Amino acid sequence: MADKAVDTLSEEDARDELAGLADKLAAANRAYHTNDAPELTDAEYDRLKQRNAQIEARFPHLKRSDSPTEQVGAAPSDGFSKVRHVVRMMSLSNAFDDADIADFDSSVRRYLGLGTDDPLRYSAEPKIDGLSLSLRYENGRLVQAATRGDGAEGENVTANARTIDDIPARLQGAPEILEVRGEVYMSHEDFAALNARQAARGGKSFANPRNAAAGSLRQLDASITRDRPLRFFAYSWGELSEPLAETQIEAIARLKALGFQVNPLTALCDGPQEMLEHYRKIEAQRATLDYDIDGVVYKVNDLGFQSRMGFRSTTPRWAIAHKFPAELAWTRLEGIDIQVGRTGALSPVARLLPVTVGGVVVSNATLHNEDYIAGRDNEGNAIREGKDIRVGDWVQVYRAGDVIPKVADVDLSKRPEGTTPFGFPQTCPECGSDAIREAGDAVRRCSGGMICPAQAIEKMKHFVSRAAFDIEGLGAKQVEQFHTDGWIKEPADIFELKSRYGSGLQQLKNREGWGEKSATKLFDAIDERRRIPLGRVIFALGIRHVGESASNLLARHYGSWNNFERAAVEAAPMEGAAWDDLLSIDGVGAVMAHSLVSSMNQEAERASIDRLVAHLDIQDAERPNTDDSPVVGKIVVFTGTLEKMTRAEAKARAEALGAKVSGSVSARTDIVVAGPGAGSKEKKARDLGLMVLDEDGWLELIGA
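-> structure tokens emitted (704 positions)
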């Protein structure tokens, strides 16, 4: 429903969606404000809240009593006593582009009856990404500290607040009653140090400084808060016994004079143009600040005007938050590292000045390949208007969802003088072998094979993966450690661990983290895998383009290791009967075949494979008896929920009958087996006029 345009929603659709949005946003508020464990990104939360407001604007009579537009924060946790705010703690309306700021200025002028030429100034300050806190002082003494909670009622965290150095216990020259409001945060440096300490003691690591600050302030034991490096910026106030000043800027200066930390980037702006200029200035400094910000807050500077304008139900009319794009940030590229993967691919990685993007601290980003760094695509066409990427550049990083961060753009106006284009290595940085880029390949690859330590260790991690040898007790971590210590250099060495390190002075059981029982279990698990199906062996070799499904296809086609090995050798000229036979396998194309034959005929690679095979009893693949099969050679797609067998069982049974199981529907598909909830695949199959069967129809067809 959320994909439908709001102006096309029926009243029933709108009512249902508003109910769902109320539940989802309430849960998000609890996760963020109460549990300090956000479940939605800022961008997704803002998107849902905007959609809720749009639906309410079209159907105002459907607005719910628990509408998200009427909510601020979330109810206080049961772990703290409650504090009723004398002056409600509001949230802020959000702006996302320049036009929103012009609209805000226009709305303020209309409300105040000001013309476009009348003077109207605004304060502009960074929006700190932390936890809102209200501090109540009576006769200059701190008597109470409370979180925002739901805006009307918060949590009493007085004892914890007293441990924060930036929060004065006593004030000189303050009003009799002064309620100072601001943001508790954690600096980047302190955040990194805290996570390091947490990791050293086996504690949980925090995703970002905001979560760390919120979790630290809301500790039931104030001594834990005392050990956490929290800071505080003051930017507002609640109840006052007398005015602080006549303007926002003067009031902030008064708070600073009283001893509070206020943000030095706060500025006075004369209208929208200066507001936007200051926004750009702050955005450009975002990565170099030692704290997280997620936008800029604008406030009408004249406090008399603020008083006249007042509040909506949850937000002031005289202020707005101009948010940064949630998944974008500018930062400095401090270096380019080259990583070598299992297939020998040289992958460039950007080392960045850390910046928080989409709720995650980003310090690395992919640069794809040498063409991308040079500012062109794989066909030589310009990308980023042809701008190359150099060390020292200011780059725009983007991160959507859980995708690996990437570099999207370069700011040439900030490029340091004297920088030179990045020289992509022509040799492997790990082993010194030639790094070759074949025609049609976007990636440069190390030619060293197993002599390359980076390839060797990644290949061995793949070798012990679940779909390959899957040796219990020998995962990626153990493989990496054994390789570092020189115990294993190639897969064959795994099967010699017991003979080499099961007795004598240097024994596995004597290593840290191991004992006699765990060592024996590992040796037994390795021995159990000496007898192994052909398909697993082919997959475990880690040949480029040969995945799990292709490995099983090859195993069924050739039947035995000897047949497979002989065919790969005979196909070495990339022509002839063996080559044609390989290409005839449904699912094997020229690229996969070329990679397979090349790997099986490289001298060093082949020697390593032969040493491995000498330790194994490779089981022939079971070839299905398809003489009477009604589906032999058919392409079958399973979709929806199967109720009488698992998806894996259905696939195995179809393949045993000589069918090929595919994950997508196309004109080449022969049969689609559709269970409940099949959705778009069933619709496409019917549109194409394909045979569509339910589960019972499929079982009847195959005689099961």
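The chain has a mean pLDDT of 88.
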